[in-house]
């Protein structure tokens, strides 16, 4: 089978690997669609790795003796290697599992360890059923396209009575616009890249502003009658977006951090927390037990065609990365067999 790798020279190569194995409660999946997330950053940073990607949907071709799926099942792969047995996994917040499987130990190689490949292997706990009448391209959006902001809005309890700010309009942030609009909330979006900002407008965001111009927090407070938004979700992964979320949220509101960030955000407890009464939460993905609800978003939202901006064969992954790097895409899907 073909699998994409990063040689470490800012390019993508394809290598032939043996098929992964369906051992114990694991299953082997033929990958039909592999959505891209932030892999392009690793490529352009010169990362060297023999596995790329963490999102996929496909068909089970082989199942281990204790697997809960069967050959022929259409499934969406959840992005982790969670154990499926600990209390955290049982609670549904599997992404926070502390006992992830060691893929190379289980499989004996990196074959099928990423998702930009023709076949992958995963514990069946992480394989959720795709409805028969739902195209796998749509079902795959339950991964990072919709999952992180869906989970954040569940934690914050965003409703049709609320105004929600989304900072950072990459695929995750644009997925946040979809989730917010589906709930009937008024959505404000902050993004400096023109293509992404225009896509948010097309999705029905009530206000889209460039956070690098003027005083965006003041502009948001003015737009909301002086109070600020009810909730804010940072998908930008930078401290400027995180800071805007805190500053633009009203008293007794809530902020969720979704974008990965290794920099330090400075918070003044009295000013930012005590006097405003803010609730701050971190959110990695959605609760596994709420999968049926995220499928409802996919089934009923009229914005999904705007969330998927490009589809490429796996062989054109470098072209996909160029578009992502230029900030001129929403969610990009790869098809390993085209």
How would you portray this structure in words?
The structure is a single chain. The protein is an alpha/beta fold and 338 residues long. It folds into two domains: 2-144 and 288-335, Medium-chain alcohol dehydrogenases, catalytic domain (Quinone Oxidoreductase, Chain A, domain 1); 147-282, Rossmann fold (3-Layer(aba) Sandwich), CATH 3.40.50. 29% of the residues lie in helices and 25% in strands. The chain has 13 helices and 16 strands. The chain has helices at 39-44, 87-91, 103-107, 136-139, 147-156, 171-182, 194-202, 216-223, 239-248, 269-274, 291-300, 304-307, 317-325; strands at residues 2-7, 13-16, 26-35, 48-49, 56-63, 74-77, 119-123, 127-129, 163-167, 186-190, 207-209, 229-234, 249-257, 279-282, 308-313, 331-335. The strands form three sheets. Strands 3, 5, 6, 7, 8, 15 and 16 form a seven-stranded mixed β-sheet that branches. The longest helix has 12 residues, at 171-182. The chain is globular and about 60 Å long. The model has no long low-confidence stretch (mean pLDDT 97).
